[in-house]
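idk why but the lab printer keeps eating my pages so im just putting this in chat instead. protein + FE2/S2 (inorganic) cluster:
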Amino acid sequence: MKKINLKVNGVDYSVEIEEDVRLLDVLRNQLRLTGTKEGCGEGECGACTIIMDGVTVNSCMVMAFQAEGKEIITIEGMATKSGLHPIQRAFLEEGAVQCGFCIPGMVLSAKALLDKNLTPNREEIREAISGNLCRCTGYNKIVDAIDKASKYMGKEGDVNGI
Amino acid sequence: MEYKIVGHNILRVDGLAKVTGKATYPEDLYMEGMLYGKTLRSIKTHAYITVDTKEAEKIDGVIKIFTHKDIPHNYYGVLFKDHEVFCSKKVRRIGDPIAFVVAITEKIAEKAIKAITVEYDEIESVFDPVDAMKEDAPLIHDRSNILYHYKLRRGNIEEAFQQCSVIVENQYKTSMVDHAFLQPEAGLAYMEGDTVVVCAATQYPHFDQLEISEALNIPQEKVKIINPAVGGAFGGREDITLQIHLALATWVIGKPVKTVYSREESFVAHSKRHPMIMNYKTGADANGKLLAMEANIIGDTGAYASWAINIMRKAGVHATGPYEIPNVKVDSYAVYTNNPFAGAMRGFGAAQVPIAHEQQMDMLAEKLKIDPITFRLNNCFKLGSTTATGQVLEESVPLIQCIEAVRHKLNSKANDTEGV
Ligand code: FES
Ligand code: FES
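predcted complex ->
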């Protein structure tokens, strides 16, 4: 057993971990933040995407102890007090959601992109979600949604989301 | 009349839960004191087996190991009951379930799986469905490997082929495909009084209830299925995977039991799209009118039937494609092999045959020196057409408009490019 300290969605946690668990397991099984999904466990599908210190990572490929002292955002940290994050709103409105299993990862990849570039073109959007597989939508509506979100965020100046 | 939904942009009912990460898939369920289940699966394609669980049972934290001895009625399946819940005498494919370990942690369950010994006494396997159809092929089940033959006959193809000025004859093969839905199979079962509750992402909850009650030999009212959010399915969740295992374990032990498949286990556990071998002969007259078609289609259903009969019938019914052909002979077959089993997948047998019939159309058009779009327009279904199965199409058949629209787009695209 080992103790790690990390900040998730603005909240400080101190967790006892087995040394061989992944960050994904800590988030899901210990913090019960089950919005982060496991689709492959091998870094291929992006369903487990989270933002760690500003960059997206596959939480199935990060050992829990590597998250010591890090600041993490999961899908549960996306909605603001006043409601949905503009990215979430755009996904809903554009019909970008089907089974939903890829969506938490997609939304976080979109956030990481838009936090750095508020006016991405469609190529850049596709590039930003290239590590996230979706088996349902065919991606076009997801790209539409991220495009729409960039416009919302440009207008509202709501970049942080938390 | 004002419609509330049709013609309006509406938000999907479960969309909000899904964009916020609150939607609950079966692996997101946790219960106090729940146990973990893991499946031991065959690593051979065709073999008699002897299973010894003694050593594994001694491991600290193992609650129980289930095998065929523990299941009252050891069979299930959507059409034929040709799957065993746990293989009793032999395995027929890689991935056949042999035992289900229930332990206090997932790690211990994994350790116990490794401690079970399975002796495989291998039998000859058959992987090519054409070989599997032969008289002397090894039998996968206790009956012929040919589990279904669909025949379609219309007119007289021998005479019609003699009148054809062009004939094209080819073989086409399609491959096995996995649905690869993004959420691997997972489930949680628990007791609610004397009722066993199974939460699992499924396409067929009412049928799961029936299959569990039959396998466990308990009344249907004592089985409840909860279908939480389903992370994609595409046909791949029509057959049972973990539902009976979880129900049995919870029914016997009395405690909640959870199972989550890895991606790898998901691949070996569920069905595939039927690979097909399609032999096609199609002929037309000098004016470009289709006169005759003969097709022989063999579908490899692997070790189990699943929906093979419906799928190979559908492939046969759709073999002509959307074209009027007065003389047709189709034979389609579903055949057992030792490959992964095939079942429902988007299109359900109608997705494979276009590879063949459309290529035939292109090649005939080329031989006739007719533009391939015009050739299709000359032969495609319209209002009043009769299909090869004798159905008269009396309702909307907008295929000509569709092809014209495509031609229009193609032409305007071509002009655009020229303009640049
Ligand atoms: S679960 Fe981490 S990338 Fe697929
Ligand atoms: S919505 Fe199903 S995987 Fe993307």
